[in-house]
UniProtKB/TrEMBL annotation, chain A:
Protein name in UniProt: sulfate adenylyltransferase
Keywords, ordered alphabetically: ATP-binding, GTP-binding, Nucleotide-binding, Nucleotidyltransferase, Transferase
Organism field: Bizionia echini
EC number: 2.7.7.4
Molecular-function GO terms, alphabetical: ATP binding; GTP binding; GTPase activity; sulfate adenylyltransferase (ATP) activity
From TrEMBL, chain B:
InterPro entries in UniProt: PAPS_reduct_dom (IPR002500), Rossmann-like_a/b/a_fold (IPR014729), SO4_adenylTrfase_ssu (IPR011784), Sulfate_adenylyltrnsfr_sub2 (IPR050128)
Protein name as catalogued: Sulfate adenylyltransferase subunit 2
Pfam entry (one): PAPS_reduct
GO biological process terms, semicolon-separated: sulfate assimilation
NCBIfam families with a match to the protein in the record: CysD, PRK05253.1, PRK12563.1
Phosphoadenosine phosphosulphate reductase domain location: 29-254
Keyword field: ATP-binding, Nucleotide-binding, Nucleotidyltransferase, Transferase
GO molecular function: ATP binding; sulfate adenylyltransferase (ATP) activity
Stretch list, region Disordered: 275-301
Length: 417, 301
């Protein structure tokens, strides 16, 4: 691997029937990311189950219950590396009852892959997956039109599905959408180019993943450093040292920059930027650094350092797209803990503006109940202002989670409108 | 602006440092679980980076099975001295002596599963609310489902079907009295990433990882080191081979591979060409298809 190789995170959504597990198995197998002992174990299991040949889908088996039921329940993470990139797959279930798992897997992805069974074309589930990719603002979408072998590798069918999908995409906020006709079972256009579909001029899936431009996925404009902790070494030579430690959420911070600390509003200049014992001239997302300032000001966890000429909005009344993640339904007027970057406050859901029917994408406005897997636009009020950006502009400073104070469970994920 | 991106190792490092700082900020009494293996050494190295110029602000904890490679213990003591941090030792031998657990019998007996009780006892008696581990999701299928911040109930148990969703980089470490968390800062690293990073940073690791001559016995297709704990079968013969260990566990269950890789460069090259997973030589994982899942549910690392 080369030193400048990047990391690409992608999510796969689909059900067993779409061939999602087969696709992942095929990617790992054809890119030689599967070890011999894993292969032997899969061969044995395939034989036991009476499958012909090696069932590639078995590579993605996880917990005992999932093996027994033959389904994916939770998000599973898989890894492979090629000479060009390192990849992390968030393998998520596709069924409506696991919407929350899809949202979880999508939250950190650069790329969403959406599987379509060529025999069935665009179905309700496809719409739902595209909607989640759009809602979570995943920068790139690859639509895998799978099982082309079962429709005689027909270009006509492929084109029809592309048109159907583009119609949905036109109603969503998605920018970069690519289509690949494939057969994960036979290996066509996954790693190797298909000989059965000479009419397809594009690249196979792996090549697409290896070469797509992802450096611009992170916001490089709005400098934001949420403070996680303050480093105060009790040792000689560092007695006056105050290092403000955090991971740059977006933008670029440079030595000498005029900065403002939020929410206090105090201003200063960046004196130094450090990573371990190295001093840096600049830091950019997603680097973990610590900075020192020219002036001695009071800063603690939950504060944010920003450039003085570009600040987020302090806000107590916040509109968010909320995905409810918990079995216990949302209760109106109940207090929840809201976490936003390293900041933590108390919040209340004031109003459900509308809910989505996530199969038809229709808005439902006369139903304010929020149950597991529901996605809704809501208004929340916090006890103190949060320093927010819109999620579309900034995935880190535009996202929140809600925690139920009675159970400590994470009950909702929100994207600030 | 295209130069403003991180390579994969820098991104993994940055993510791990972020997690370690979150642990420090969200918990009262965290520890690093330190086994002397490369993954816990890596986590310790990352913690050093995360808090510099301050010292690592929490202790290292070793669950000592008593069946150690002598080299591992020496390495542990050296690193503790070097970092100037506290060491907490949970002793499996003491758990046996106190009758908390019973020793396994027979040829392939190990103290692997006994560690669970010792670990949970040490967590409780030291009032630890977060134990940071070097577990990686690529190691094993049950670990692929693990969270960065992983909740344990007041019996120390993991409930894989009822895990908290983890979105973006927002981590929820809230817990009730008696419960604790496990945190896994290097969840997203693969074995190859670990070696590439150790090589890049020139991190000190025990000599056992480098090819060396050693007394070994062929058992179940791997070279088991000879030691005072090994019970030889009649047909087994102790021979001297040049081997290295790909992972380090108890001396009784960790198999070595024949190898000439005696530098980090050679190890990285060798690992890149490996055709078997690194836990393939660990008899503790071979016991059943869900051996790891079952142990993890009970409170294993």
């Amino acid at each position: 691997m080369l030193d400048n190789n990047q990391l690409l995170r992608f999510t796969t959504a689909g059900s067993v029937d779409d061939g999602k597990s087969t696709l992942i198995g095929r990617l790992l197998y054809d890119s030689k990311s599967i070890f011999e002992d894993q292969l032997v174990a899969i061969e044995n299991t395939s034989r036991k189950k009476g499958h012909e040949g090696v069932d590639l889908a078995l590579f993605t088996d996880g917990l005992r219950d999932e093996r027994e039921q033959g389904i994916t329940i939770d998000v599973a993470y898989r890894y492979f590396t090629t000479p060009k990139r390192k990849f992390i797959i968030a393998d998520t279930p596709g069924h409506i009852q696991y919407t929350r798992n899809m949202v979880t897997g999508a939250s950190t992805a650069n790329v969403a892959t959406i599987l379509i069974d060529a025999r069935h074309g665009v179905i309700e589930q496809t719409k739902r997956h595209a909607f989640i990719a759009s809602l979570l603002n995943i920068p790139h979408i690859i639509v895998c039109i799978n099982k082309m072998d079962l429709v005689d590798f027909s270009e006509k069918i492929y084109n029809k599905i592309v048109t159907e999908f583009e119609e949905i995409a036109s109603k969503l906020l998605v920018t970069d959408v690519r289509f690949i006709p494939m057969s994960a079972l036979l290996g066509d256009n996954v790693v190797n180019k298909s000989e059965n579909m000479p009419w397809y001029q594009g690249a196979p899936m792996l090549h697409t993943l290896e070469t797509m431009h992802i450096s611009s996925d992170i916001n490089k404009i709005d400098a934001r450093l949420p403070i996680q902790t303050v480093l105060r070494p009790q040792r000689e030579g560092f007695l006056d040292y105050r290092g403000y430690a955090g991971r740059v959420a977006s933008g670029i911070l440079r030595k000498g920059d005029d900065i403002t600390v939020l929410p206090s509003g105090f201003t200063s200049k960046i004196k130094s930027i450090n990573l371990h014992n190295t001093e840096l001239d600049e830091a950019y997302a997603p680097m973990s650094v610590s900075v020192t300032l020219e002036d001695d000001i009071d800063i603690s966890r939950g504060d944010m350092i920003v450039r003085s000429n570009n600040k987020p909005e302090p806000s107590q009344d916040i509109e968010v797209m909320l995905c409810w993640l918990n079995n216990t339904s949302a209760k109106p007027r109940t207090k929840y803990t809201v976490k936003h970057t390293s900041n933590e406050q108390t919040a209340m859901i004031k109003e459900v503006v509308y809910k989505y029917d996530i199969n038809t994408l229709d808005r439902i406005s006369n139903n304010s109940e929020l149950n597991m897997n529901d996605i809704a636009k809501v208004r929340i009020r916090t006890t103190k202002p949060l320093m927010v950006d819109s999620y579309r502009e900034n995935r880190t400073t535009g996202s929140i989670i809600l925690i139920d104070e009675a159970t400590n469970e994470t009950v909702a994920a929100g994207m600030i409108v | 602006m295209s130069k403003y991106y991180l390579n994969y190792l820098d991104e993994l490092e940055s993510e791990a440092i972020f997690i370690l700082r979150e642990v420090w900020a969200q918990f009262d009494n965290p520890v690093i679980l330190f086994s002397g293996g490369k993954d816990s050494i890596l986590v310790t190295h990352l913690a050093k980076k995360a808090f510099y110029p301050a010292k690592i602000p929490f202790p290292l904890m070793h669950v000592d099975t008593g069946h150690n490679f002598p080299e591992t213990i020496q390495f542990r003591d050296d690193i503790i001295k070097d970092l100037g941090v506290e060491l907490i030792v949970g002793s499996v031998q003491e758990s046996i002596d106190e009758g908390r657990v019973a020793e396994e019998k027979g040829k392939n007996a190990t103290r692997n599963a006994l560690q669970i009780t010792t670990l949970l006892d040490a967590i409780e008696s030291n009032k630890i609310d977060c134990a940071i581990g070097g577990g990686r999701r690529d190691e094993e299928k049950a670990r692929a489902k693990e969270r960065f911040f992983s909740h344990r109930d007041d019996f120390g148990q993991w409930d894989p079907k009822n895990q908290r969703p983890e979105l973006w980089n927002i981590f929820n470490g809230k817990h009730f009295q008696g419960e604790h968390f496990r945190a896994f800062p290097i969840s997203n690293w693969t074995e190859m990433d670990v070696w590439n990073y150790i090589k890049r940073e020139n991190i000190a690791i025990p000599s056992l990882y480098f090819a060396h001559e050693r007394e070994v016995v062929k058992r179940d297709g791997t070279w088991i080191p000879n030691s005072e704990f090994l019970v030889l079968e009649d047909h087994e013969e102790v021979v001297i081979k040049k081997i290295r260990f790909r992972t380090l566990g108890d001396i009784t269950i960790t198999g070595g591979d024949e190898s000439d890789a005696d530098t980090l460069e050679k190890i990285a090259l060798e690992v890149a060409g490996m055709r078997n997973t690194e836990r393939g030589n660990r008899s503790d994982d071979k016991r059943s298809e869900s051996a790891m899942e079952d142990r993890k549910r009970q409170g294993y690392f």
